């Protein structure tokens, strides 16, 4: 009976698996740094809305330079980043057109000149932690939760989901399968 309990625990342990999913996303105005991204949704035109938050430092990216939450709406031909941190007096509202792997971006980037025209650069995706759908909905849903690329609002909503929950996806196997595996082991 004792070996059955131990075997059951081992089987259950292996049936609930934590998977770390990473994604590469073009984030206008950002250099490679520890970032985490959660997918908020996709519209009918193929644009995905991401919540960008500080990530966990890793071996190659050992300093977290980003503070707060940004919202990114990215499609095959455009990207729109909104970030507002009143404590640091930083506001970013960057819109990019993407053609043939190059991004032409304009917007308010806190440089005192509006609109600021960024040099045209090759689209360089940044590896971010997470990349899957968020495991919980935003704490306070609002009309600003999902931005359209033409939006000029510099407001974004924060989420109450902790960073580690954003970067981990939990896969669970139905209870029926657990009992089937345990039943098979007992019969052996």
From TrEMBL:
How far does the signal peptide extend, from start to end residue?
A: 1-21
Composition-biased stretches (Low complexity)? 142-162
Which keywords has UniProt assigned to this entry? Answer: Signal
Q: Which residue ranges are recorded for the region named Disordered?
A: 134-162
Name the chain's protein: Uncharacterized protein
């Amino acid at each position: 009976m004792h070996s059955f309990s131990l075997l059951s625990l081992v089987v259950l342990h292996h049936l609930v698996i934590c998977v770390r999913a990473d994604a590469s996303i073009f984030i206008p105005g950002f250099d490679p740094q520890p970032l985490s991204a959660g997918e908020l949704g996709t519209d009918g035109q193929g644009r995905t809305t991401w919540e960008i938050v500080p990530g966990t430092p890793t071996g190659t990216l050992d300093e977290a330079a980003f503070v707060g939450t940004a919202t990114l709406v990215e499609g095959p031909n455009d990207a729109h980043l909104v970030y507002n941190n009143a404590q640091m007096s930083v506001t970013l509202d960057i819109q990019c057109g993407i053609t043939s792997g190059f991004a032409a971006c304009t917007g308010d980037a806190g440089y005192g000149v509006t609109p600021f025209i960024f040099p045209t650069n090759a689209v360089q995706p940044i590896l971010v932690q997470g990349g899957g759908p968020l495991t919980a909905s935003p704490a306070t849903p609002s009309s600003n939760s999902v931005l359209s690329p033409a939006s000029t609002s510099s407001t974004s909503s924060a989420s109450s989901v902790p960073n580690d929950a954003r970067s981990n996806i939990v896969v669970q196997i139905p209870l029926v399968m657990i009992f089937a595996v345990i039943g098979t082991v007992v019969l052996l």
